[in-house]
Write a structure and sequence with these properties.
This protein has helices spanning about 1-10, 35-45, 50, 75-85, 95; strands spanning about 20, 30, 55, 60-65. The chain has a two-stranded antiparallel sheet with strand order 1-2. The protein has a two-stranded antiparallel ribbon with strand order 3-4. It contains five helices and four strands; from the N terminus they run αββααββαα. It is an alpha+beta fold and about 100 residues long.
Length: about 100
């Protein structure tokens, strides 16, 4: 039913991680700063995120922005790289090589 409404109204859908990233709670992980969470939401509302460049995440066919105004690109790249390690054993060498270079 949700998919029908999205298609019917040509709605954009955004999956946003505004919680925990970079590892386990109490170990290497940390909460995404409120400043960056707000920056992501502001970029959606202003239309800036829709104009951004994206890299396709092959396992789930998600498009991940490579740059968001007000959010350090190295932070985005590092978060992408850390998250991708969970799926690396399912990816081809070409897909792995196409990831962020940091």
């Amino acid at each position: 039913m949700l998919a029908q409404k999205i298609e019917e109204h040509k709605a954009d859908v955004w999956l946003i991680n505004t919680g925990w990233t970079g590892g386990a709670y109490g170990k290497t992980g940390q909460r995404i700063s409120l400043k960056y969470s707000r920056g992501i939401i502001d970029a959606i509302h202003s239309g800036e995120l829709k104009k951004a460049q994206y890299q396709t995440y092959p396992i789930f066919d998600l498009q991940i922005p490579t740059e968001i105004p007000g959010i350090p690109s190295d932070k985005l790249a590092q978060l992408f790289k850390e998250n991708f390690t969970k799926y690396q054993d399912q990816a081809t060498p070409e897909i792995i090589a196409a990831g962020p270079k940091i």
